[in-house]
Amino acid sequence: MKQIKVGIVGSQFAAMLHAESYIRLPAVKIQAVASLKNSENFGNKYDIPNRYKSYKEMFDRESLDLISVCIPNFLHKEVVLAAVDAGLKAVISEKPLATKVEDAREMVEVCRENKVKLMYAEDWIFAPALIRAKQIVDEGGIGEILYIKAKESHNGSHSVYAQKKEYAGGGSLIHLGIHPVGFISYLAGSKIKEVMGMTSGGSEKNLVHHDYTVEDWAAALLTLENGIKGFIEANYITVGGMDDKIEIYGTEGNIHVDLTKGSPLHVYSRPGYGYAIEKADFTHGWTQPAVDEFMSLGYVNEMSHFVDCVLNDRNPQPGVRGEDGLTALEAVFAIYKSAAEKRLIKL
Ligand SMILES: NC(=O)c1ccc[n+]([C@@H]2O[C@H](COP(=O)([O-])OP(=O)(O)OC[C@H]3O[C@@H](n4cnc5c(N)ncnc54)[C@H](O)[C@@H]3O)[C@@H](O)[C@H]2O)c1
Q1: In this protein, which residues make up the domain named GFO/IDH/MocA-like oxidoreductase (predicted)?
Q2: How far does the centroid of ligand 1 lie from the alpha carbon of residue 336, in Å?
């Protein structure tokens, strides 16, 4: 079987999501990892032969077909541009594409000019429950879509980089809210036209995390170019595990998706056990542990799609192209502007 060689930049949380997905794909060999810290442990865990501290050295010394960029937001641009410089031909950037719209635009343009496939890792597009919801929508099962409401929330990021504006570009909105923003546009088949946003504002203005310089609560009303209405929510104040919910309202019906808490498993445990769902504090008492988050949150299908694009020289599908990462970021920054200026912003 033809195999592609993958290099992962980063070795913590997102890198683990990518690696856990790649190891299920027979067409992939994870050839190398580059990370400031922990690349040895990560390499041992996933049986990766070559480990580096510097991603530039990895790009120079390895012959790689696909790169996973799994390091903090402010570094996405420099890693993608370094990959292009090194002559690599396919790069997956984790979300958000960048911390500034101008940087994201430059990444898309440089990749286009150099015929590099830039893939934007929006995993919601590949979550099985959302794939099924879209099929029902596409076959007319709920009539015409009128309104989509979606949120991602949990109790705060494990990553110190995500807590500081200079590294992350923003808080719960750019980190978590970018999922519903990207997904709503994809499902509606239309760009976001205008937004009305509100955020907690960061630091002392936050609801809970006064040590974060980025906001820990954000919400926005949206209108898409085709008239569909939206409402997105993203916060770091939700205890009890990650809470991702999507509601789609149509002229003939509606769909409700519980992406994170809909497990068919119900466990009662007195002593507790290892792990239930992402960001949950406890596993004792009654819990609903995820069966397979790598699959249910879309990561396995996502990597499978990107690997197929490389193997068969296809372009990424709508929702996960570099330009989709750019339009999602434009909407996110329009929401920040709306929140700051307390008015409706047209994109
Ligand atoms: N799609 C998702 O569901 C999802 C989930 C979590 C994180 N992410 C995204 O993934 C990215 C990484 O987040 P994370 O949670 O893994 O962060 P993290 O803080 O857990 O890990 C950061 C990693 O980057 C490495 N690193 C930092 N600077 C580096 C440099 N200059 N060169 C090489 N390595 C460097 C660190 O060693 C570490 O391995 C972020 O952009 C985040 O938004 C996406």
Answers
A1: 132-255
A2: 23
Provide the pLDDT for residue 1. 75
Nearest to 228 by CA among 263, 193, 270: 193
List, for residues 192-232, the tens digit of each pLDDT value.
Answer: 999 999 999 999 999 999 999 999 999 999 999 999 999 99
State which fold the 125-298+328-346 domain adopts: Dihydrodipicolinate Reductase; domain 2 (3.30.360)
Nearest alpha carbon, ligand 1 atom 6: 14
Continuous segment of H or E residues that includes residue 32 = strand 28-34
Is there a contact between 326 and 105 (Cβ–Cβ < 8 Å)?
Answer: yes
What is the helix (H) or strand (E) element at residue 121, kind and residue range?
strand 117-121
Does the Cβ of 55 fall within 6 Å of ligand 1? yes
pLDDT tens string 58-103: 999 999 999 999 999 999 999 999 999 999 999 999 999 999 999 9
* Domains of the chain, residue spans: 4-122, 125-298+328-346
**Structure-token match 């997105």, residue found:** 232
